[in-house]
Design goal:
Structural class: alpha/beta
Number of strands: 9
Number of domains: 1
CATH topology: CBS-domain
Number of helices: 6
Strand content: 25-35%
Strand order of the largest sheet: 1-2-3
CATH architecture: Roll
Helix content: 25-40%
CATH superfamily: CBS-domain
CATH class: Alpha Beta
Distance between the termini: 13 Å
Largest sheet: 3 strands, mixed
Amino acid sequence: MRASEFMSHPPITIDENATAEQAAQLMIAKKIDCLPVIDASGALRGIVTPSDYTTKEVGIPFSIIRAPQVLGRWLPPGGIEAIYRSARETPVHAIMTRTPVTCGQTDSLDKVASLLVDRKVHHVIVVHDHRPVGVVARHDLLRAMTRATATT
């Protein structure tokens, strides 16, 4: 079974110059938790997920200390609301994960499942000529399982 057989397609994408707020609104409206980020030519540039909007522990450069960040900004005590307000102007390219996990349309179920597990991600972007053509989420593996059991 190949990725093209169980991926969700077409993917809902967002332009890298859209705002973080627009990305959040789109994910809420479409009830999705993954947006491939594309440039003006449609090429994949990154990915935005709800985890990009939550607090992350980030290493402080040249230090062993880790501190919280939200939307790529250091989090002062009680400052998350101000950072969320700034999301109205923050471009998606400033908060996206720049190296999304990808696969090709002809990659096997084994390879895609391994990517999800080994890379500890919830989504693999299926690409063709550097453009997203689908998304495989963990729940898409259920679709693959039902198709595999239907043919046995």
